Amino acid sequence: MPYLAKIVLYPIKSLDGVEVEKARVLPSGSLECDRELAIFDENGNFVNGKRHAKIHLLRTEFALAQRTISVQLPGGDSPINFHLDSERQALEAIFSDFFGFKVTLEQNLQMGFPDDRNCSGPTVISTATLEAVASWFPDMNVGQMRRRLRANIEIGGVPAFWEDQLFSNNSDIAVSFRIGDVCFLGIQPCQRCVVPTRNPDSGKADSNFQKIFVQQRQATLPDWAALSRFNHFYKLSINTRLAELSTAKTLQVGDEVVILT
Predict the structure, then answer these.
(1) Which of 4, 82, 133, 260 could be disulfide-bonded to 91 (CB atoms 3.0-4.6 Å)?
(2) Where would I find the MOSC domain in this sequence (predicted)?
(3) Cα–Cα distance between 166 and 1 in angstroms, integer?
(4) Cβ distance 175 to 185 under 8 Å?
């Protein structure tokens, strides 16, 4: 039976994630604390993995209850700790020095900073999918693939690519599904960017990653996937929205997952 196997939040967009047992669903559909903060340059552009491979060199750990972050700079002797609210200017200064240009941290408590503001719900993938995709690449394990793809919700108890049932052939028709008592709409397969091609620790890109990924994704696309939604095959995991009728506010590891339509 499908169940919620893992929840991963990314408190600062493009930095390391933190695994949690439960997460509150905001009225926008976003998970509380996920991409709540984002780094911006002076032109108002995201400082993220798409634009700055150097960001992969930062190691961060979060204590969400205490609202703190521990930052390990490359070559640094020990991690530096900051409070995400009261010491935000000091954190901005550390990041500015690291990138070599002035940055600011912006906050959005209602939605966070999702890549697709029209699909602000959690991104969904199955554990079996991560295992299958990792097997396409020599010397890659499921943990590294998880860090490359950065999904919020991981579904267990299902075969690889099970989540490809969560979108339809018609882009105007969403697929309704429930996690615990929270109803979501599956909208579309997530179009991947350059980030999954890079080693999540070094930022070094694998020039063959996308080619292998596309070939294998096409070859293993399950019969239940809506082929018309693949104008190319560099797509994986599902973008979602919160269903309007949903009233529950919390997801918890172990919750049952059911496709409704």
Answers:
(1) 82
(2) 88-260
(3) 16
(4) yes
CATH for 3-31+115-259, among 2.60.120, 1.10.10, 2.60.40, 2.40.33? 2.40.33
How confident is the chain (261 residues) per 10-residue block, as mean pLDDT? 98 97 96 98 96 96 97 93 97 98 97 92 98 96 97 98 96 95 96 96 94 98 96 98 86 98 80
Whats the size of the chain, residue-wise? Answer: 261
Give the Cβ contact number of residue 252 at 10 Å.
14
Alpha-carbon gap, residue 5 to 115, rounded angstroms = 23
Write out the two tokens for 118: 């029209």
Instruction: Give the 3-state DSSP-derived string for the chain, with helices as H, strands as E and coil as C.
Output: CCEEEEEEECCECCCCCEEECEEEECCCCCECCCCCEEEEECCCCECCCCCCHHHHHCEEEEECCCCEEEEECCCCCCCEEEECCCCHHHHHHHHHHHHCCCEEEEECCCCCCCCCCCCCCCCEEEHHHHHHHHCCCCCCCHHHHHHHHCCCEEEECCCCCHHHHCCCCCCCCCEEEEECCEEEEEEEEEECCCHHHECCCCCCECCCHHHHHHHHHHHHCCCCCCHHHCCCCCEEEEEEEECCCCCCCEEECCCEEEECC
- Beta-bridge mates of residue 40: 46, 104
Distance of CA 81 to the CA centre of its chain: 24
For residue 40, give both structure tokens: 């911006």
Domain ranges in the chain are 3-31+115-259, 37-107
Instruction: State pTM to two decimals.
Output: 0.95
The pLDDT of residue 133: 98
User: Which of 52, 58, 54 is CA-nearest to residue 70?
Assistant: 58
